[in-house]
Protein 1
Amino acid sequence: MAELEESFKRINNKLQQLLKQHLLLQKENEKLKETLKTIQLTKDQDTEQISRLQQQVSILKTSIGQMTEPDKKAFEKQINQYIKEIDKCIGLLSE
C-alpha cells in the first residue's frame, strides 16, 4: 500500500512539473508571437521605405537626365502602372 501511495505521489509531482513547464512554454510562445509581429511590422515599414526611396532615385535620375535605357523602360512601366491604378480608381468612383 505504501508503494502505491509513493507511486501516486511521484506521478503527481511529475504531472505538476509538466504543467508548470507547459505554462512556461505558453508564456514563451506568446512572447515569441509578439516579437514576430513586431519584426513583421518593421519589415513591412522598411519595405515601404525602400520602395519610396527607389522611386525618389528614379525621379532624381529622370530630372537630371542620367537615366540609362533600362532605367527609362522601368520608369515608363511604373508610370503606366500608376496610370492604370488611377484609371481603376476613377472607374470605381464613377460607379
Protein 2
Amino acid sequence: MKVAIVHDYLKEYGGAERVLKTLTEMYPTAPIYTAFRVKGSTADKAFTGKKIIESKLSSFLKVGKLYSPLRFLIPTIWGSFDLSEYDLVITSCSWYITRGFKVGKNTKVVSYCHTPPRWLYGFQTSVGFTRLWPVKIYAAIVGHFMRLYDFKTAQEIPNWIANSKNVAGRIKKFYKKNSTVIYPPVEVKKIMNATRSIEKKDFYLIVSRLVGAKGIEVAVEAAEKLGINLKIVGEAHGFSDVEKRIKNTNKGKVELLGYISDEEKFKLMAQAKAFIALAKDEDFGMTAVEAQAAGTPVIAYNGGGFKESVIEGKTGVLINEISTKSLKTAIGKIKKTKWNKKTLITNAKRFSKEVFIGEIKRYINPILPTRF
C-alpha cells in the first residue's frame, strides 16, 4: 500500500507536528508533502531522515515570513501536488488548509483536522496581524476567496477525523461534515517513566508558543502581582511580539526558557506546583494532558479542548475568566487540594499514543480497498 502524508508546513514543532510524528511512525515509508520546510528549525530536526517533498513555491514562502501574507497562493501550492499514485493520503491540516491536491479515482483521503483555519472564521488568532487597517482590508478580501476554496475542497474529502469534540463542532458548522473524534497522541508512558521520582518545586509552568491568544501575558502579570515564580517554555512564532513584551515587563518572577527537549519539559512539568493553560477556545491542548501524565494538576480556561481533558477538582481547576483575580483563586485551590497522582495519570491515559494509534487503525482499515 502506497501512503502519503500531507502537512501544512515544517517550521515550529508543536502539537500538530507531534501528531504528524506519530503518523510517520505508523507509516514509516510514507513521504511528507508540505508547503515548505525551514531547514534547521525544530520541526525540520524532528523529521530528520524522512522523505520530505516541498511545494514548487517553497523558496518564496520561507523568505522571511512570507508564508503568511502569501496565503492567497494556497490553492496554487496544494494544486501543484499530484498524489494520484497513492492508495491512501492522510492530511494533517489546520491554518494552511492543506487540501486541493490531485488524487486518483481509487485514492482514499483521510483528513485529520486540528481545526478549520482560525483566521478564516473569526476565531482569535495567535498574532492578531489585522490590527492595521491596510492589512485588515487585505485579509478581508483574501479571506473571502479562501473561505470559498476551503469549503469547496472540504466537500471533496469524505473521511474526517477531528482532534477534539470542540473541533468536530467547527467541522460540522463550517464544512457541513460529520467527523470522528480521535484525540492527539500523548506520550503518557514516556512521561511516566521520566518523572517517577521527581519532587515538586516552588514554581508554576506554562508550555506554549510565545504568541497571542494564549493568555501568556495575563499569567505573567499575575505572577508579578501575586509574587509567584513562573517558568515559560516555548519559542516565538510568526509576527508575534509577545516574547519582547514579556521581557520588557519582567520584574524577576518570570523565566523564559525558550525551546527545550521533551525530557527537560517533562521534568519541569513534574516539578511544577501546577501547569497553567489559558488559551481561549483551544483546539485541544496536548500540553495540559502531558502535565497530568507527569502528575501535575492544571489551571485551565474553562473552554475549548480543556473542558475535555481537565476534570474540575480531580485533575485541575477550570477558570471562567482570564484575570489576575481568577488566577489567584485558582492557585489558592491548587494549594489547598491534595492532588492524587494516580488519578491525574489515569485521566491522561485516555489520550495516550497507544490509544491514538489503535483508533486511527480502526478508522482507516475499513475504508481501504479489500486488497489491503
Protein 3
Amino acid sequence: MSGIFERLQKQMEVDTEKEGLSPLDLQDLPPLLRKIMRYMLREYELPYAEICQWAGELPEGERPNQADLDQALETLSRQFWLIKRGEGERVRYQANLRRKAASRLGQSAWNSLDAKIAASKKPRQE
C-alpha cells in the first residue's frame, strides 16, 4: 500500500515543478529580464503593446531597444517565467508563478501526534 503513496508523492513533486517559478528565483536573472519580471509581477498580465510602452518610458540608460525587449520576452516565455498567449497584435504575457508550498511545520506536528497516538495504543508492559 505504501507504493501507491510513494508514487502519488512523486507525481505531486513533478506537478509542483511544472507550476511556475518562485519570486525568490528572480535574483538569478540578468538585469533586463529581472526588471521585466518585476514589472510583470506587479501587473500580472499585460498585452505586448503595454510592455513596449513601459519599456519606452524607462530612464535612458536602462531602456532596451525593441530587438532586446523582444528577445527578453521570448527568453522569459521559453524558460516559463511568462506565459505567452495569442498571436500578432493580440499577444499577451502573464507572470507564471507556482502556488505557495505547503508548510513543513504542519506535517512535522502531525507526524509527532501520530507517533504519540501509536505509542499510547501499545500495550503497557509493567
